[in-house]
Specification:
This protein is an alpha/beta fold. 36% of the residues lie in helices and 19% in strands. The protein has a seven-stranded parallel β-sheet, sandwiched between helices. A six-stranded mixed β-sheet has the order 8-7-9-10-11-13, with helices on both faces.
Length: 343
């Protein structure tokens, strides 16, 4: 459980921190040849100079497996429309083969830029080299990857997945006095969010709280059905030996809550449930007392990604990695802030 499948290469990183919106985060090894400046700024809507051609960008998304993903797609679609960018969207299943095929389709169309939310961490070099040869810059959205050479992509807009895991662990430590048995519902196998969130969570409980024990941890697919299935198996194996659940997204947390209730237990009381995403339904579940806490992963990435894209296509340097700050929602602030949630 504590060993990682796959290889995460060491990285060189120049970081910009953007605070007004939050997103999924990632690390990667493909640093540009030239160092980029560290900046802190808000998203803007640059005005295209008169006579400048319309930018055409191809966006390869990871399907619509959750409310969060659908909101992310809508964010970039509406922002592109507002800026006059011709955005072509290819929603694909969470399979690398499908994403690579979509990228190659956009390269053949000679788009001006590519935007990618990669479903797995490795194996991207061939298609990225093709984009580089065609002089098409690649921008990573909400998650990155590990590649063996530099200069294959321009920038990544994300939040820090390890910190999301650490936030979840510290919240549980505070509420349980640092003593509980935990079941973890991870994201898909091979995805960087799953690895990074688990890594951050485990870093805290192993390094700081020896009485917090991860008794079960298995990968899921991000769906409510899978969350329910996994939690049912955990409860069957452990019975009342689980006092807390860490789910890597809200949808799997909702499935776990259903399984907990079906077992005759009370979520939020008998079993604390912490998730990641902080969608509006999650905040409603917190207010209802069923979900204990949720760490934010704001899906409104469109303005930030397109700021970087327009700047780079216009010849400007952009940061290698743009980090987003995340918030934590629980009973202390969910009711006050739910009105501002759009998804």
């Amino acid at each position: 459980m504590r060993a990682r499948n796959g290889i995460l290469t060491a990285l060189l990183m120049t970081t910009a921190v953007w605070s007004p919106l939050t997103a999924r985060g990632q690390t990667t090894s493909s640093a540009p040849a030239a160092s980029q400046p560290t900046t802190t700024q808000t998203a803007s809507q640059p005005v295209r100079p008169p006579g400048q051609k319309t930018i055409t960008a191809g966006f390869v998304q990871i399907g619509t497996e959750s409310l969060w993903r659908a909101a992310e797609t809508q964010s970039i679609r509406s922002e592109a429309e507002a800026r006059g960018i011709n955005l072509r969207i290819a929603p694909t299943p969470p399979e690398q083969e499908s994403q690579v095929k979509a990228l190659r389709g956009f390269i053949a169309q000679k788009v001006d830029a590519l935007i990618l939310a990669p479903c797995v961490e490795t194996g991207w070099e061939p298609v990225l080299r093709e984009a580089k040869a065609a002089r098409i810059p690649v921008f990573l959205m909400d998650r990155g990857f590990s590649v063996s050479e530099g200069g294959l992509w321009r920038t990544l807009v994300s939040s820090e997945f390890p910190e999301q895991g650490r936030m979840a662990a510290r919240w549980l430590a505070e509420k349980t006095g640092g003593k509980c048995n935990i079941a973890e519902l991870q994201g898909p196998v091979g995805s960087t969010p799953a690895y990074e969130r688990h890594k951050g969570f485990e870093e805290v409980i192993v390094g700081e709280y020896s009485a917090m024990i991860l008794v079960k941890s298995q990968p899921g697919d991000g769906s409510r059905a899978k969350g329910k299935e996994l939690m049912e198996s955990f409860l069957k194996a452990e019975g009342n030996n689980i006092q807390a659940v860490f789910a890597h997204n809200d949808d799997m947390a909702f499935g776990a809550i259903q399984a907990i209730e079906d077992a005759g237990l009370k979520p939020g009381k008998d079993v604390l449930v912490v998730s990641i995403d902080a969608t509006k339904p999650a905040l409603e579940a917190i207010i209802a007392g069923k979900l204990s806490a949720s760490i934010e992963c704001n899906a409104q990435l469109g303005p930030l990604v397109l700021d970087a894209l327009e700047a780079a296509v216009g010849g400007a340097k952009v940061p290698y990695k743009i980090l987003i700050k995340d918030d934590l929602f629980d009973a202390s602030n969910a009711k006050e802030r739910i009105g501002a949630r759009s998804y």
